Amino acid sequence: MEELLSVCGLPLSFCGKAVIRLLCAAIFGAILGFERTRKMRAAGLRTYILVCIGSAMTMIVGEYGSSVYTNTDPTRIAAQVISGIGFLGAGTIMVTGYRQIRGLTTAAGLWVSASLGIAVGIGLYSVSVAMLIITLVAMIFGEKVQSNYLSKGNRIRLFVMFDDADCLRAFLIFLKSQDISINDFEQLHSVGVTLATTFTLKFNVRLNHAEFMTKISSFSGVAFAEEV
């Protein structure tokens, strides 16, 4: 973009270049953040914009510092951004009541947004655009591929609530009769006579997850069942 304006005969000062880079970083961060906002994630549009423009400004300051103080290294500040952004990403990762980890993609997206901002901040526009496109493809289409694969895979993770311990035993017998292996089992808590559990099951024959969940939900003694 800076090169385009130069060709048009518009002189650009360092401050002018910095403003253009910050605007590009804000737009790129907004595009990534909107994808997360659409899925109602905690770190969304504003967070991604701030991370991206903050990283871009870091590189701008580093570049300016190196031009004023010849012995400074502009990449040292960027290195601290990449390592320091971890605290923000860690805040988006949580373990649900089902013992399921959430927020890994959002945390990774924030880290990518910081890298994107650094690239824009130093003026690598073509590389930044390519990185933006690749990241969006990974976020949007990667989720669809992953969901499609998991919905037809030979493993399933369930959260199931049983009326009592006898119903749980009957359910375990049912799984064995269906030639379904239990890879992992955990009793989360007990409220009165209701038992909350999680299962990781392996099908020895390929089953449709939706059909299997319908069968589980109608099983006698199952108060609630959900794939997690």
Tell me what the structure shows.
The protein has helices at 2-7, 14-38, 45-68, 75-84, 86-92, 104-121, 125-152, 165-177, 209-217; strands spanning 94-95, 101-102, 155-162, 180-191, 194-203, 222-227. By secondary structure, the chain is of the alpha+beta class. The protein folds into 2 domains: 12-150, no CATH class; 154-227, 2-Layer Sandwich (Alpha-Beta Plaits). The radius of gyration is 25 Å and the shape is elongated. The model is unreliable at 7-11 (pLDDT under 50).
What are the key terms here?
two-stranded antiparallel sheet; Alpha-Beta Plaits; 228 residues; four-stranded antiparallel sheet
Quick description:
With 228 residues, this protein is an alpha+beta fold. The chain has 9 helices and 6 strands; from the N terminus they run H-H-H-H-H-E-E-H-H-E-H-E-E-H-E.
Topology:
Layout lengths: L1 H6 L6 H25 L6 H24 L6 H10 L1 H7 L1 E2 L5 E2 L1 H18 L3 H28 L2 E8 L2 H13 L2 E12 L2 E10 L5 H9 L4 E6 L1
Helix pairs in contact: 2-3, 2-6, 2-7, 3-4, 3-6, 5-6, 6-7
Residue share in β-strands: 15-25%
SS-based class: alpha+beta
**Spatial shape:** elongated
What is the number of domains?
Answer: 2
